[in-house]
Amino acid sequence: MAKLGKRTRAAREAVAGKESLSVEEAVALVKGNAVAKFDETIEIAMNLGVDTRHADQMVRGTVTLPNGTGKTVRVAVFARGDKAEEAKEAGADIVGAEDLMQAIQGGEINFDRCIATPDMMPVVGRLGKILGPRNLMPNPKVGTVTPDVKTAIDAAKGGEVQFKAEKGGVVHAGVGKASFDEAKLVENVKAFCDAVAKAKPSGAKGSYMQKISLSSTMGPGVTIDVAAATEH
Question: Which Pfam families does the record match to this protein (predicted)?
Fold first, then answer.
């Protein structure tokens, strides 16, 4: 435990007093402090000037990170008949209908992304209270309610990240792994920031992007200059 404490103190000392960094500086610092025994996820958190209690201030969308997430994404698909077969051929990890609904109701949520064909929404709709809080509910606005299940599965497994503003106007996501090259992490961070910037809702007033932080799973966070994250 003493060794862990020493490492943690060293990481915190390395970032002390460093704020409003460029994306490149932040990535280098966070990556350099990611010294856990596993491949840490590089995480971004953005504080937005929105009130998610109002529909016209909700922020949500998707972005395909140019260098992927480094994470193996398990995909569940609600489909029947030919579409179910298409989903299996496209590499879906779990495919089902009422049986899948019952499994989820029983607490089996062994997937990271949920896709549904439009005809399955009456079934999926019963799972709103379970999948909604986990940001897993299929939604046509982000392409997860679609007859084109192959494209949706390819996107999910190819580095697409969904984002949604939570209570307090915070958006967060994983944008790669500590093992990624710095240049690839920089590209991913900027792509994510661009996507959130473009998703600015009509009801947002005043300053939209207020704070951007970058951290690794076990490391301290650093702040990124908002203008630097979106100017390129």
Answer: Ribosomal_L1
d(CA 135, CA 120): 18
What distance in Å separates the CA atoms of residue 92 and residue 114, rounded to the nearest whole number?
A: 10
Residues 45 and 172: beta-carbon distance below 8 Å? yes
35 and 136 within one domain: no
Structural domain of residue 138, as residue ranges? 75-158
**Segment (H or E) for 37:** none
Strands in the chain per DSSP E: 41-48, 60-64, 75-78, 94-96, 113-116, 160-164, 170-177, 209-216, 222-224
Number of domains comprising the chain: 2
Q: How many of the other CB atoms lie within 10 Å of CB of 46? A: 25
The helix/strand count (H/E) of the chain reads as 9, 9
Coil, strand or helix at 122: helix
Q: What is the CATH number of the domain that holds 130?
A: 3.40.50.790
Lookup result for tokens 């060293």: 10
Backbone angles phi, psi at 69, to 5 degrees: -100, -15
* Tokens representing residue 140 in the block: 């046509």
> Which tens digits make up the pLDDT trace of 161-193?
999 999 889 999 999 999 999 999 999 999 999
* Cα 118 from Cα 111, distance rounded (Å): 20
What are the residues facing 215 on neighbouring strands?
Answer: 43
Same domain, 86 and 149: yes
